[in-house]
Amino acid sequence: MNKHILIVHAHPEPASLNGALKDAMHAHLLAQGHSVEVSDLYAMGWKAAVDAADFPQRDASARLRVPKDSHAAFAADALTADVRAEQDKLRRADALILQFPLWWYSMPAILKGWFDRVYSYGFGYGVGEHSERHWGDRYGEGTLAGKRALVSVTAGGWQPHYSPRGINGPIDDLLFPINHGLLHYPGFDVLPPYVVYRSDRVDAGQFAQARDGLLRRLDGLWSDAPIAYRRQNGGDYAVPSLELKPGREAGGERGFGLHVAPAA
């Protein structure tokens, strides 16, 4: 079945490893009969910072309150044209792929700014009933529920640097704020990330290996099992504290791993 995929790419150099991987994904998905949109943020000159200009109909004499002004602009269909265009791309997409380098333990600022602006109140958050019984439609529910997401990231360090005992910390922990906080939060089913290590030292043979591995991951975009993040409203969390209920963790587990359901 043909699908629609949105690739959001964040690297300033078109001839970079990230650019080459983005182009390979685009061509591969098209060859499979899918439709693809690409948001190349640097090429687009994407405005990363949220400010008063994002809400052109707000009262300019009032203090800027981003959630309140974002909510009003979204409800009135008065967000800026660039933000509305990206929201429409997300609505059309069956899957979202992020392609970016890991810079200072996170994503490039321009990509974070894409989320800051596109995930307006009423679209990315502030969705659903908010009460002491139901704390909003999020973490597995929300506007983007039923879609899939994949993070494809390059890292300069060696794979052992990002291992459970590695000095940089486990790669799954470093990407948790992205996979769980930015993708699972508004509803995506998030696939395990694809990571290319030692990205500044990739020769032609290593690039072919990295590219082919990524394309194999694309072939499983709808068949591979997503990360088993717990759903907020699935019964694992107490409301309204949203703490994991006693006895739900696997033996002795702590930290981010608590929010992944143990294998049956």
UniProtKB/TrEMBL annotation:
Where does the Flavodoxin-like fold domain start and stop, copy by copy?
Answer: 3-215
**EC number(s) given by UniProt:** 1.-.-.-, 1.6.99.-
Looking at the keywords, is Ribonucleoprotein present?
Answer: no
| SUPFAM superfamilies assigned to the protein according to its UniProt record, in alphabetical order | Flavoproteins (SSF52218)
Q: Does the keyword Oxidoreductase apply?
A: yes
Task: Look up the domain of life of the source.
Answer: Bacteria
Look up the signal peptide feature and give its range.
none
Please list the GO terms describing molecular function: oxidoreductase activity
One of the Pfam families matching this protein, by short name:
Flavodoxin_2
| Top EC category | oxidoreductase
Q: What keywords appear on the UniProt entry?
A: Oxidoreductase
Q: InterPro entries given for it?
A: Flavodoxin_fold, Flavoprotein-like_sf, NAD(P)H_dehydrogenase_qn
Name the protein family.
Answer: Belongs to the NAD(P)H dehydrogenase (quinone) family.
Entry protein name: NAD(P)H-dependent oxidoreductase
